[in-house]
Amino acid sequence: MQLLLDLDSETPIYQQIRDRVVEAIADGHLAAGAALPSTRQLAVDLAINFHTVNKAYDLLRREGIIRVNRKSGAIVHPGVKQPITDAEAAADWRRRARTLLAEADVRGLSREEIQGFVRTTLDRFSDLPTTEPRPDAGSTASRATTD
Predict the structure, then answer these.
(1) What span, in angstroms and rounded, lies between the C-alpha atoms of 131 and 137?
(2) Are 32 and 24 in contact, with CB atoms under 8 Å apart?
(3) CA of 82: how far to CAs of 55, 77, 85, in Å?
(4) Do 114 and 101 form a contact (C-beta atoms < 8 A)?
(5) How many Å apart are CA 95 and CA 42, to the nearest integer?
(6) CA distances from 67 to 71, 74, 104, 107, 122 (A)
């Protein structure tokens, strides 16, 4: 798993870790059931406090994206990339997507730019139903690489 974090960003590091893990799953770099590095190992690899990684993993666990077992560690939840059956999770996703689209509108992006970006981004995710061929998922530069 490769993670690119911006330590100077206003986005908290735990949120960046959470976001990069979600993106790695969507991009096909992490499959359902894949093991994640331990909180301590990822903290060492990223040169950050392990409590920060723990906070990110806890957020991912609460969102149903990973499972955490004290003995075997964290894994990508076996049910990822399945249709959302939890109404609360679906509503939460829609609220967050609406906010992101509102931000794009407020910043003056055109409808065409937004739709183009969404199409391009979805095309890069693996395992999405589509009628068109998808290009291979691209890799991300990394500040830390863990295996």
Answers:
(1) 17
(2) no
(3) 25, 10, 9
(4) yes
(5) 30
(6) 12, 6, 33, 37, 25
List all residues 6 or more positions away from 147 whose beta carbon is below 8 Å from its beta carbon: 1
Backbone φ and ψ of 8, nearest 5°: -95, 0
Least Cα distance to 63 among 15, 121, 101, 5 occurs for 15
**Tens of pLDDT, residue by residue, the chain (147 residues):** 778 999 999 999 999 999 999 999 999 999 999 999 999 999 999 999 999 999 999 999 999 999 999 888 999 999 898 887 888 888 988 999 999 999 999 999 999 999 999 999 999 886 654 444 333 333 333 355 555
DSSP three-state, residue 125? coil
Q: Enter the pTM of the model.
A: 0.78
Angle 140-144-147 (CA atoms, 0-180°, nearest 5)?
A: 90
Residue 2's φ and ψ, nearest 5 degrees, are -110, 135
- Of the candidates 67, 66, 78, 74, the one whose C-alpha atom is nearest the C-alpha of residue 35 is 74
Q: 3-class DSSP state for residue 34?
A: coil
